[in-house]
Design goal:
Strand content: 15-25%
Strand order of the largest sheet: 3-2-1-4-18-17
Radius of gyration: 23 Å
Number of strands: 18
Structural class: alpha/beta
Largest sheet: 6 strands, mixed
Shape: globular
């Protein structure tokens, strides 16, 4: 019998568990370990609360979690509660699928000022993640600057711009909904260091910006390249740029909130007396390789909050080689060391969609199949259970999670699918009740 541990219960973790079952059938026992009592990682705490159709993919992961040879072990943090070396001693293979939950830093002066809130923290705040629930964004500011030209920047802008009624049917955390309902934001700036032809915004997410009740998107016509150049773009990007052109033309109505897209600007410093007051940027141009280079000309945006949406980093685990520059684990196509692997964003960095993790998981399992040879027996889950008992830890099973799930659904406000617990202690209490 093979015993394999998967660290992380998000998309990469459960797609990998699915692939392990397909590869090894009944000859494998898989423990999916997570530091939180709740499974599904990015789906629960990273996907925008008003994108419930995307969150529905968790039903696929639940189908895997409920099989006889897959077990969820929540509320156990590897590297803190159990060392990586101890885990490697118990399992034939250990696969790290922890994603990239930490914000990548801007690396500019003023980044430590109050009011600079990374997208992981802000998204975690409105999604009710226990690590970020106490975040206090300055929503009484008149203007917010969002740095980034991808879908995360659009998600943040859309959530900040929506009226309270537009969150009907979402699972936005109650504390965030209350704070956003009282917000005074009137201008949301979305800033990209390159041009419209280099954005990573998909048409679906861009189109949502045009149908907001109280907000209108705006693009300066001068920022757009000649329309004839759009023909060379791949179809999805061409459609996205077409939406930006629509935003530049306007639609004849007015709105109290303006979402302004800025291109060819990069942040160089954040200024303020103890808190964010201004974002100073440098105008850029594209060099012959398509990279943004500074022109020396500065521009200033007055704002009370800056939200960098420039990417994420994997959180280090003691005992696992880590690449500080790339913000992920050191690996050779997923192999870290004998019997130790990584998958998903922990392997390749924060790229691709949720679905990208499925083929990634199957690829890692093929490598494990090549690497594993007949050898000594391993304790697997029995050994992990022994360590958990010896250390007085409280592990959460998938059936325990179902109790948390039921309690969250029961406490939901009218029209919402659930009201998440934002404290681990409350989750554990729900299991006991």
């Amino acid at each position: 019998m093979l015993h394999i541990a998967v660290i992380g219960s998000g998309p990469a973790g459960y797609y990998t568990a699915e692939a392990l079952r397909r590869q090894f059938g009944d000859d494998v026992r898989i423990d999916v370990i997570d530091r939180l009592p709740t499974p599904f990682g990015l789906i629960r705490a990273g996907v925008a609360p008003d994108h419930q159709s995307i969150k529905a993919v968790s039903r696929r992961y639940e189908a895997t979690a409920l099989t006889d040879n897959v077990r969820f072990v929540g509320n156990i943090e590897i590297g803190v509660d159990v060392t990586i070396n101890a885990l490697r001693g118990l399992y034939h293979a250990v696969i790290i699928a922890t994603g990239a939950p930490d914000d990548r830093k801007l690396g500019i002066p003023g980044e430590a000022l109050a009011g600079v809130i990374g997208s992981a923290a802000l998204v975690g705040w409105y999604n009710g993640h226990p690590a970020f629930a106490r975040t206090d964004p300055p929503l009484q500011s008149d203007a917010v600057a969002i740095i980034g030209a991808g879908n995360v920047a659009l998600d943040v802008a859309r959530v900040l711009a929506k009226s309270p009624g537009e969150f009907q049917g979402s699972d936005i955390a109650a504390h965030a909904l209350a704070a956003l309902s009282a917000a005074r934001i009137r201008t949301i700036h979305i800033i990209g260091r390159r041009g419209p032809h280099q954005i990573a915004m998909t048409p679906k997410e861009l189109a949502e910006m045009a149908v907001l009740e109280r907000a209108l998107p705006y693009v300066a016509p001068a920022d757009l390249p000649p329309e004839g150049e759009d023909a060379a773009l791949e179809p999805g990007l061409r459609k996205s740029v077409g939406l930006l052109r629509q935003f530049a033309r306007g639609n004849g109505r007015d709105a109290p909130v303006r979402i302004r897209f800025h291109f060819f600007l990069r942040p160089i410093r954040i200024e303020g007396d103890g808190h964010v007051e201004r974002l100073v940027l440098e105008r850029t141009r594209l060099d012959e390789t398509g990279n943004a280079v500074g022109t020396g000309e500065e521009a200033v945006i007055t704002c009370g909050m800056v939200v960098p949406c420039i990417g994420y980093r994997t959180h280090p685990i003691p005992g696992v080689p880590y690449d500080e520059r790339l913000g992920r684990f050191v690996n050779d196509d997923g192999r870290i060391a004998p019997g130790l692997y990584c998958v998903g964003w922990a392997r390749r960095g924060p790229t691709g969609t949720i679905g990208t993790n499925r083929p990634d998981g199957f690829h890692i399992v093929e490598e494990i199949f090549e690497d594993i040879r007949a050898g000594g027996a391993k304790e697997g889950r029995a050994g992990l259970d022994r360590l958990i008992a010896e250390r007085g830890l409280k592990a959460v099973t998938f059936q325990d999670w179902k109790k948390i799930d039921a309690a969250e659904i029961a406490r939901a406000r009218a029209g919402a699918p659930r009201e998440k617990f934002i404290k681990v202690e409350a989750m554990l209490s729900a299991i006991r009740e």
